[in-house]
Amino acid sequence: MKFVGIVGTNARHSYNRMLLEFMQRHFADQAEIEILELTDVPMFDESNDQTDSDVIQQFATKIEAADGVIIASPEHNHSIPSALKSIIEWLSFKIHPFDGQAVMIVGASYSVQGSSRAQLHLRQVLDAPGVNASVMPGSEFLLGRAPTAFDDQGNLKVQGTIDFLDSCFAKFQKFAEIVAEMNAPEALSFNPGTYEVTATGHNGELPMRVTLSADRIEDIEIDTSSETKGIADVAFERIPKEIIDGQTLAVDAISGASITSHGVIDGVARAVKEAGANPDELKKRRATKAVAKPKVTEVTTDVVVVGAGGAGLTAAAKVLQAGHQALVLEKFPAVGGNTVRAGGPMNAADPDWQRQFAALPGEKKSLQELTELDEAQIAPEYRADFRTLKQQIKTYLADNADQTGTLFDSTLLHRIQTYLGGKRTDLNGQQIYGQYDLVKELTDNALDSVKWLKSIGVKFDETQVTMPVGAIWRRGHKPMGDLGFAYIQTLKDFVEKQGGTIMTETPVQKLLVTDGQVRGVVATNADHEQVIVHADAVILASGGFAANTKMLQKYNTYWTAIDDDVKTTNSPAMTGDGIRLGTSVGADLVGMGFSQMMPVSDPNTGELFTGLQVPPANFVMVNQQGKRFVNEYGSRDELTQAAIDNGSLFYLIADEAIKKTAYNTSQAKIDQQVADGTLFRANTLAELAEQIKVDPDVLTKTISDYNHYVDAGSDPEFHKTAFDLKVEVAPFYATPRKPATHHTMGGLKIDTGAHVLDHQGQPIDGLYAAGEVAGGIHAGNRLGGNSLSDIFTFGRIAAANALADHETAVTE
């Protein structure tokens, strides 16, 4: 038999290590015992997921391949050491190699009682649902007075102790055989045929066709039309293949597409059940994983890009266009980052194009109010631009005084609105606004980014000009097709056709520095092999840190509170990796205390398009007491802070008429969410109140008052300025909502050439940054549509300067 022995401490000298080494020698003729050390295991941190790291994967693979596990633990303060607890946490967070595995506990300690209390605690930990190990009962091997228990050769001295260990080990061998027999999957037979089933994916129903022969899963076909392109694609490719290849349902979900992954697995399970077999038996079949052999791959390229979102792929494309080599490293299985999740329109002032569209009611008034703004409220560096803009607006208003006129825009309007939109004051009274030279670089070059995207194949719908949510002005260039995916697919295809390499599932651990110059990275690939990349320049484009709660809380100076369980609308890959890499070589940071929240997000997932997400004019928000608490037509910041002040969780109330105005949903999806308990529906407001646990009388009065305000066109309570429908047509709905992190404003400090700057304001040789990993542009608030302008503009700038700086250095 083959066992794995885990030394339950990371101490340099350990009597528990000596105990395992003795067992390894003593029982060599009965079993092979491989000893694993905790030395390199990181402390468990849910917000900095290390599940895919080499050390965690090595533990998981070896434990799964073993016939049993022996844990030797000391006792620290009546419990187990933190290092041992961390490895168990990592191995029960997203992966579960201990599940059903036979475990023997032994322990050595200075005290006469050995490690009895630690062993008791360890049994409780291993019995937890996420761990679910099969721990051998009784037969506790407690080695007391450990310093005197071993001789000079590391052997136990007392024969009685050795005899008892022999007895315990013999019982463990039998126990491991029994556990293996219990876990052995039954032979399955299916009623052959093709079964049509419907699972639940990320965006609703997931129709599937599963073909089974008498004893095998032969084929899995999935209707992917309802899922978001670019996000779930890897799950649709990989999960069916792993199920068929391994004839098992014990396959790992794909990071970033876990809901879709589980949907596919559940759909196959339903088909198996319909075919007369027990799908639980397929879940017992472990997928075979090869233990990675230690291997180091070295690669040389001109520019290495960290992150395969919009900024990273843009940078790589520009490098390749210039005839140089580019390698892109992405830690997730799929490319796209946050860009693939974007709504689509990017901001760029294009007056010649925008002039073909008529001005909308209220736009002239907004421009007039801007000209009346006191210049003293404008930062000195922006005042010259503001004066010129005022003259542009006055000329436009004069020319269109007697007519509706066409849509006005200019680069200066985009610049000043970006500046004004980003102005914020934090809880300490510190005001922040966009750095002038960076905002100027963005707004001056945004239109060139649109033109460049067109040149590589992105098609835009030029029949309409749009205003993304929170954008202030209509200057959005909307791509044809699937919005954010339209950019990513085109960029990915272009990079690959130009000879670029994209390595997914390859997180970067550190930067290579030679004589103070950044000259590459060290990463780990999908096979858990080390990859060393030598390059003339490194471009960090790994996004922000909206999925890293501890990092948000650490730097926050804007929100009165950020909950421990706050979710994000972002990709789960956004954990601040690029910021960590940059600061490791001395990079300065800017604006880290500011983050943007999306107030109307799913409290469980952070998603936007669950429940009934309706236009703001139809928002009716009630707190956990059933009362309105804010002007629902207010800014995102106002709604978010009001929600935080009311306990964060609130409900969007709607009726059947308002339901029809909801975005991106279907009746089937609504019915499924009601069945799942994530959306509430009732025939009366009183019944709805009971479902969401508020006083029926309070909710009924709240809605009655709101309906009167709609009739009157005035809201004396919270001064809502735009109304549409009343809440009066049954059935009634309550969508739980909670603020989720949407964008992190701060990041690495850069200059207009996208060089990363140190604390003295000097460029770090060979290091560049683009996109949300960099700060200073959006200040305290990012305008909707500006993030896309940012990533495509500074992605191009970073690439151009990475090449130009190197060529200059070579020349010099």
Automatic annotation (TrEMBL):
The keyword DNA-binding does not apply. Coiled coil: none annotated. GO terms for molecular function: FMN binding; steroid dehydrogenase activity, acting on the CH-CH group of donors. It catalyses: dihydrourocanate + A = urocanate + AH2. Residues 201-275 form the FMN-binding domain. Binds 1 FAD per subunit. Binds 1 or 2 FMN covalently per subunit. One of its GO terms (cellular component) is membrane. Its EC number is 1.3.99.33. Keywords: FAD, Flavoprotein, Oxidoreductase. InterPro entries: FAD-dep_OxRdtase_2_FAD-bd, FAD-oxidoreductase_2, FAD/NAD-bd_sf, Flavocytochrome_c, Flavoprotein-like_sf, FMN-bd, FMN_Rdtase-like_dom, Succ_DH/fumarate_Rdtase_cat_sf. Belongs to the FAD-dependent oxidoreductase 2 family. FRD/SDH subfamily. NCBIfam families: flavo_cyto_c. This is Urocanate reductase.
